[in-house]
Amino acid sequence: MNEMQEPALSISAVERETGLSKDVLRKWETRYGFPAPLRDNLGERAYPLQQVDRLRLIKRLMDAGMRPSKLIAESDEHLHALAQNSQSNTVRNQDSAVAGLTLEILSKQDPGGLRQLLYREVLRQGIEHFVLDTLDPLNQAVGDAWARGELSIHEEHVYTEAVQWLLRDASTKLSNAQGSPRVLLTTLPEEQHGLGILMLSTLLALHGAYCISLGTQTPLQDIIDATEAHQIDLVALSFSNAYPQRRILPALAELRQRLPADRGIWAGGSGVARLHSPPDGTQLMPAMEQALEALATWNADHAE
Q: Which fold has domain 176-301?
């Protein structure tokens, strides 16, 4: 019997993240030898994150009309090549369709319908691809509709609340108090936009980190106190374009000076996209993918 040596997801979590049913996962395991789950301390199936990523990719290609028996036999490199060849038009069309449905549902004053739509997209795509591929353009589409006067401010708030509900639910289900690293997520005072930290918290939790969110607009001293109290390894801050750019690097420098040297600082969001030369021990990450790369590097550097 295999023993777990790395972060892994239960079969229920894999079903939720990939859209592949438990029956399908078990059938493929028997018929094709993939996935090849490990076993946890109770003997239950536990799927390493690398296998989950491959399953998610296979599911996306199946949705594009390809047969699973052929996909499972392909190398990871070939699967990614297939995905790149088929993804651009498909993703663009899907994003456009989801955005159109979202705006239509908002105009009909149907918050429940909006939650159902977003939840279906998470089940279809998996939470990682939903956050990375769909949510950013969807946020932009809703913001643009508001700017054109097609949505009222209360309708935009309904959208934001639905996304926050979805991300909090996913992050809570993925949360593991034994996960590593321990990440504190928040924004500084005057930064009211909190979707960024919810998106990042969900992605990091999916990849094995334990995330603690303080919400938005947290004073510097409270961040420092919470870092010590919760034995935090990394502090992640989000900055939108609305935050004064000239104040970001000085704030990061002050936080760097007041935190122990072994605590990392990540600064993400569109507000840091044009910044350079952050303080030592601080990383700028305008894109969510960069945070996942930094997490992989942190895990490699701290592997026993």
A: Rossmann fold (3.40.50)
